[in-house]
Write a structure and sequence with these properties.
Elements lengths: L1 H8 L4 H10 L5 E9 L11 H10 L4 E5 H11 L22 E5 L9 H5 L7 E5 L5 H9 L3 E4 L7 H12 L3 E4 L3 H9 L3 E9 L19 E9 L5 E8 L1
Parallel strand pairs: 1-6, 1-7, 2-3, 2-6, 3-4, 4-5
Antiparallel strand pairs: 7-9, 8-9
The chain binds NADP nicotinamide-adenine-dinucleotide phosphate (NAP).
The site of NADP nicotinamide-adenine-dinucleotide phosphate has 26 residues, from strand 1, helix 4 and helix 8.
């Protein structure tokens, strides 16, 4: 059982994958951007959302890549209750082309009934959903009825390389900001897609309740510090680039 779970997280032909990534110049640049505690936790502290998104905005990414757990937990944390859908929620928003798409992986359809909370966000150009061949048909119908762009890119889970290729080809995406949790962040790292890690270090220690950002990471290549900025109120912004 453990092996089966591990094989989902760490693809067997990892070294082959790594060399393929380097050669695939069609893929967008992927920046992993997270707010972390001093001891590397992604959760169990109050993130400074203002600073987090101020820094995220500096990348002017064409797309934010987000895991379904991240969206679900975010909605539970920041929405007192999910607002009822209105007519406008069924149409694509007319917003500036300079805004990023929110590209959400959700093969199980766990965001059915709450995706409109993302679409309503004024800094989101629109939501694009990545699903797989195993995605429940009723979720696909939900997406179609609401005019969400959705793409089937994988058998069970989303095939990340296909997904990134699609974003580049169909949406002209050059920079992806992965604004997500440990699972998707580590998958992107382990499969060699991340070229930059941006960390907003918070002056707080989570300790025993830590949800460590890198605890599923198994290979990162060489890290080079390219930014270290002390910010207001004891926050620090660190940026590392990853050499292939
Ligand atoms: N501090 C920060 O900066 C920060 C930022 C974001 C989130 N967070 C926190 O992180 C937590 C959520 O993160 P998380 O680590 O649970 O999950 P996550 O990063 O949201 O990732 C879950 C996603 O990974 C996908 N996935 C799982 N296995 C996969 C595979 N083998 N291939 C491709 N995709 C796969 C899932 O897709 P399917 O299930 O659709 O297949 C799902 O969409 C929350 O507590 C949130 O508050 C913190």
């Amino acid at each position: 059982m453990k092996e089966a779970l591990l094989s989902l997280v760490y693809p067997r032909n990892k070294s082959l994958n790594m060399s393929l990534r380097v050669k695939n110049e069609m893929l967008p640049k992927v920046v992993l951007h997270n707010s972390v505690s001093l001891d590397g936790s992604l959760t169990n502290f109050e993130p400074n959302m203002g600073l987090h998104y101020q820094i995220a905005g500096k990348y002017a990414a064409d797309a934010h890549l987000i895991g379904s757990n991240t969206v679900k937990v975010g909605v539970e944390l920041y929405e007192e209750e999910v607002p009822a859908e209105e007519k406008e929620d069924f149409a694509k928003p007319m917003r500036s082309e300079s805004l990023p798409y929110w590209v959400i992986l959700d093969t199980k359809g766990i965001l059915k009934g709450i995706l409109h909370t993302c679409r309503r966000f004024e800094y989101c150009r629109d939501v694009v959903v990545l699903v797989s061949e195993g995605t429940p048909a009723e979720y696909v119908t939900y997406l179609e009825e609401r005019n969400y762009d959705y793409h089937i890119v994988g058998k069970k889970h989303v095939d990340l390389e296909r997904a990134l290729e699609l974003l580049s080809k169909k949406y002209g995406v050059k920079t992806v900001l992965a604004d997500t949790g440990r699972i998707l962040g580590n998958l992107l790292l382990n499969q060699g897609f991340v070229s930059e890690i941006s960390l907003l270090i918070h002056p707080v220690i989570v300790g025993t309740a830590s949800y460590n950002m890198f605890s599923d990471a198994n290979k990162t290549g060489k890290l080079k510090l390219c930014k270290q900025e002390a910010l207001e109120e004891n926050y620090v912004w660190l940026v590392y680039t990853l050499e292939a």
